[in-house]
């Protein structure tokens, strides 16, 4: 019995390898998603009342543009020269998640040319200019990984980040670490539809232990 050997062109071979790698990745993600979250946090503060959410710091090396006509209509934004990005969506989702937990939350944007927010004096100034609350905390989030399995058919996004609640003196009172974890895009078929859902799910996961102090 003779064995037939199929010879593929270089372009066809590369396409086959990409399809195989994607199939293996999807299988791995499908196996991981049903498991519990790998989020690691320190104990949540018991007197949480007011949080100023800083814009998510994108350290992925990619702009992570998520803009599209449908997304712009959902957000109520007009097209601009700066597109909506995944960090933009995550920043807003974190604020919304905190508000749903009874925390007074707002988004603060450091002024252009201002010192780094990591500096104690700038953190105090930013908190003072963002809220009149007596003891606000700042939520600082660093996005390290945001990788979708497909740009055209979004199924999962692998997300890794670090988050911390910081007081006006620059002291960390709570922190969270999320290693690269697959987040379900809710069956969305595009980045414009899937990124907002992924941002919402990540925000709910990160803020799960945070809530307003009893009055």
- The average pLDDT is 77
Query: Radius of gyration, Cα only, in angstroms?
Result: 21 Å
Helix vs. strand class: alpha/beta
Please give the CATH architecture of the largest domain. 3-Layer(aba) Sandwich
Q: State the low-pLDDT regions, or none.
A: 19-24, 30-36
CATH classification class of the largest domain: Alpha Beta
Element order: H for helix, E for strand: HEEEHHEHEEEH
* Backbone shape: globular
Notable features of this structure?
22% strand, 215 residues, seven-stranded mixed sheet, alpha/beta, 7 strands, Rossmann fold
Could you explain how this protein is built, in words?
By secondary structure, the chain is of the alpha/beta class. The chain has two domains: 8-36; 38-206, 3-Layer(aba) Sandwich (Rossmann fold). Helix content is 33%, strand content 22%. It has five helices and seven strands, in the order αβββααβαβββα. The protein has helices at residues 10-32, 69-75, 86-100, 120-130, 191-206; strands at residues 40-41, 50-53, 57-58, 104-107, 137-148, 156-166, 172-184. Strands 1, 2, 3, 4, 5, 6 and 7 form a seven-stranded mixed β-sheet that branches. Helix 3 (86-100) packs across helix 5 (191-206). The longest helix is centred in the first third of the chain and has 23 residues, at 10-32. It is globular, with a radius of gyration of 21 Å. The N and C termini lie far apart (82 Å).
Question: What secondary-structure arrangement, pairings included, does this model have?
Answer:
Layout: H1 10-32, E1 40-41, E2 50-53, E3 57-58, H2 69-75, H3 86-100, E4 104-107, H4 120-130, E5 137-148, E6 156-166, E7 172-184, H5 191-206
Parallel strand pairs: 2-4, 2-5, 3-5
Antiparallel strand pairs: 1-7, 5-6, 6-7
Helix pairs in contact: 3-5
